[in-house]
């Protein structure tokens, strides 16, 4: 780094490593020749229409063509909803709105999604950690110990990468514990795969409840960058002070509103059902491999497993153009890899490669 840049860059950014998104790790990869089972994306690419008529105008800050159908889908009022550039922007907006840099902190429960910590670090906001227990339930005493120390509590359910849903009674306890001191943010990025367990109908009961949603996973629109924050209207109004004037580009609004139409929702539900079926069959076959231990639960569109040869297996898959995600650097997840469910064909390719890997191991042993 040059002297000037070194002198100017914010103190809290000096040691920060950028988030290693699945895309960055394999940047420049060819998505047609490679099988991407590493980012919890949907394997389906659905068709949409674009009308260019208003492209010369700035878009609405919060387009009702997206807001109204999503509010109906999520069973909230339009004033309890905010559209943003993915759920990731929702995370950052919450931190920027409710945490004072250099003073306030958030609470996270690892192993979990990496962006809560990265966003906090880039905003110079502190991080308290209450790791999940061995069975990936919340550690209530570690969480209680943070009461009064944090402004936001991030809880991912179903949790990425463990696939576990947080117990209702535990989450209720967390909401009550922080009723007077913090917002409790339930990240429901994968809720379509576990729809019965949503918290979206509980906003009236808990003034400090916030929910994050996205079109990136079950709705098969990771490329769109469209996500939602669900919260009581005073929370939404506060975030509106911080959000950019035009956060939702016009083509994004058009596509999102088509994805949320009757037909769009029907397609999403069918694709979720397909992936559930794939998940059962892939899990069953994975469990037959030697020394392979399934880890966590299957409430989302991915499977986590542990294997003592995880590095050799990972290298073998990459060499054969099948990309999955290493999760072994997270607490409690030593030797763990995560597979996103793809199409039947993609899943079979992965399983066939794994079978030949284990066969090779057996011969050389
Ligand atoms: C993928 C993911 C997100 C990010 O969603 P975007 O809308 O694509 O920004 C947020 N939270 C979790 C837990 C995720 O897995």
UniProtKB/TrEMBL annotation:
Cofactor(s) named in the record: pyridoxal 5'-phosphate
GO MF terms, alphabetically ordered: histidinol-phosphate transaminase activity; pyridoxal phosphate binding
Any one Gene Ontology BP term: L-histidine biosynthetic process
Catalytic reaction equation(s): L-histidinol phosphate + 2-oxoglutarate = 3-(imidazol-4-yl)-2-oxopropyl phosphate + L-glutamate
CDD domains assigned to the protein according to its UniProt record, in alphabetical order: AAT_like
Key word Phosphoprotein present: no
Domain (Aminotransferase class I/classII large) ranges: 37-351
Pfam family, one: Aminotran_1_2
Domain of life: Bacteria
UniProt KW keywords: Amino-acid biosynthesis, Aminotransferase, Histidine biosynthesis, Pyridoxal phosphate, Transferase
Pathway annotation from the record: Amino-acid biosynthesis; L-histidine biosynthesis; L-histidine from 5-phospho-alpha-D-ribose 1-diphosphate: step 7/9
EC number: 2.6.1.9
Residues recorded with modification N6-(pyridoxal phosphate)lysine: 217
HAMAP family per the UniProt record, alphabetical: HisC_aminotrans_2
Record family assignment: Belongs to the class-II pyridoxal-phosphate-dependent aminotransferase family. Histidinol-phosphate aminotransferase subfamily.
Listed PANTHER family: HISTIDINOL-PHOSPHATE AMINOTRANSFERASE, HISTIDINOL-PHOSPHATE AMINOTRANSFERASE-RELATED
NCBIfam families on file: hisC
Subunit structure of this chain's protein: Homodimer.
Protein name: Histidinol-phosphate aminotransferase
Lineage: Bacteria, Pseudomonadati, Pseudomonadota, Gammaproteobacteria, Alteromonadales
């Amino acid at each position: 780094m040059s002297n000037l840049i070194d002198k100017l860059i914010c103190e809290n950014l000096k040691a920060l490593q950028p988030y290693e998104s699945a895309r960055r790790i394999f940047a420049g990869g060819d998505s047609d020749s490679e099988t991407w089972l590493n980012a919890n994306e949907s394997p389906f690419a659905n068709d949409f229409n674009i009308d260019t008529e208003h492209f010369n105008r700035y878009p609405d800050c919060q387009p009702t063509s997206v807001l109204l159908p999503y509010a109906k889908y999520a069973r909230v009022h339009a004033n309890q909803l905010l559209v943003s550039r993915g759920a990731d922007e929702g995370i950052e907006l919450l931190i920027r709105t409710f945490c004072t840099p250099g003073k306030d902190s958030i609470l996270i429960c690892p192993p979990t999604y990496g962006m809560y910590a990265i966003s906090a670090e880039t905003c110079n906001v502190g991080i308290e950690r209450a790791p999940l227990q061995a069975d990936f339930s919340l550690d209530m005493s570690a969480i209680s110990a943070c009461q009064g120390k944090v402004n936001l509590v991030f809880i991912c359910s179903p949790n990425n990468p463990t696939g576990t849903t947080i117990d209702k009674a535990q989450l209720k306890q967390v909401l009550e514990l922080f009723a007077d001191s913090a917002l409790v943010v339930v990240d429901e990025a994968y809720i379509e795969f576990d729809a019965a367990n949503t918290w979206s109908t509980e906003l009236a009961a808990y003034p400090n409840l916030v929910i994050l949603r996205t079109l990136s996973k079950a709705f098969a629109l990771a490329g769109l960058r469209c996500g939602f924050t669900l919260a009581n209207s005073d929370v939404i109004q506060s975030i509106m002070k911080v959000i950019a004037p035009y956060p939702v580009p016009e083509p994004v609004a058009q596509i999102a509103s088509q994805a949320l139409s009757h037909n769009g929702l029907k397609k999403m539900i069918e694709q979720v059902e397909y992936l559930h079926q794939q998940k059962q069959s892939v899990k069953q076959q994975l469990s037959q491999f030697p020394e392979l231990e399934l880890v966590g639960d299957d409430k989302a569109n991915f499977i986590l497993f542990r294997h003592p040869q995880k590095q050799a297996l990972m290298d073998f898959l990459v060499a054969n153009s099948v990309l999955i995600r290493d999760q072994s650097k997270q607490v409690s997840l030593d030797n763990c890899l995560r597979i996103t469910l793809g199409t039947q064909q993609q899943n079979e390719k992965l399983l066939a490669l794994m079978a030949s890997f284990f066969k090779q191991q057996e011969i050389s042993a």
